[in-house]
Amino acid sequence: MTPHNRADKADIAPVVLAPGDPLRAKLVAEHFLSDARLVTDVRNMLGYTGFFKGQKVTVMATGMGGPSIGIYSYELFTTYDVKAIIRIGTCGGLQKQIGIGDLVCAMTASTDSAWAHQYNLKGTLSPCCDSELLFKAVDQAKQLGYPCHAGMVFSSDLFSSYNALGQESWKAWARMGALAQDMETYALYATAAWTAKRALSLLTMTDSCVSGEGFGPEMRSKGLFPMIEVALGVALEV
C-alpha cells in the first residue's frame, strides 16, 4: 500500500487504464469489465480490477492535472510494478480537422509546466509515448472505424476556459502543430520515462477551441466509449 492507494500489490493488474475522473473509472468497471471489484478508494480516487475478455485489467482514477497523475503513475509503476498505463482522458481540440468525439493519440507532449525541473536536465525534455502502444491504438481505432489522429499534445497547468492570459492563448501551440490540449499527458510520459515503463495517452476531443462546439451533457459518458474500447483492445495485446 501507499499513502494514495490502499490496494494490495496483487490487486493491481500489469496494465492500468487511467481516467482522470473517478466516476469514469466506475463507468469502465461497470460497463466493460466482468467481476470488477473496488480495490482502492483513498481520497475517492476509485480503482477497480476486473477482467476484459479473460484478461485482468485495472482502471484507476488519477485526478486532475500533472502533479496528481504524476503521484498515482509513479506509485503504480514503482510500488505495484505496473508495466503500462493507458490514460483515457478528454481534451480540447486545437485543429479544425479534429471533430468532436474524435480520438487523439499523443505521440509526444509539450507543456507550460515546470514538471521536468526535478530531473535536473540541461535542456528541455519532450517526453513521448511508447511507440508499440501507439501503433496498437491507431490500428485498433482503424479496425473499429473510429476517427483517430496522432501527434503532439499540449499539457497545460491552466484550464483553457479559465486562462487569465486569454482564452485564445492556445493558438500559438496550435500553430506549432499541437493537436489538442489536456493537463496530464506530459507528467505521465515523463514519469514513464524516469521509471523505464510504458505509457500512452489516448484522448477524446470533447470541446473544440477552434469552433467552440462540444459534447452535450448526455455525451460526456457515452461519447467516451470508443476511446475506452480502443484502450481495452490495446490492453489485451500488452
UniProtKB/TrEMBL annotation:
Gene Ontology molecular function terms on file: purine-nucleoside phosphorylase activity; uridine phosphorylase activity
Ranges where the Nucleoside phosphorylase domain occurs: 15-211
First-level EC class: transferase
Swiss-Prot/TrEMBL keywords: Glycosyltransferase, Transferase
Reactions mediated catalytically: uridine + phosphate = alpha-D-ribose 1-phosphate + uracil
Domain of life: Bacteria
Protein name: Uridine phosphorylase
Source organism per UniProt: Sphaerochaeta globosa (strain ATCC BAA-1886 / DSM 22777 / Buddy) (Spirochaeta sp. (strain Buddy))
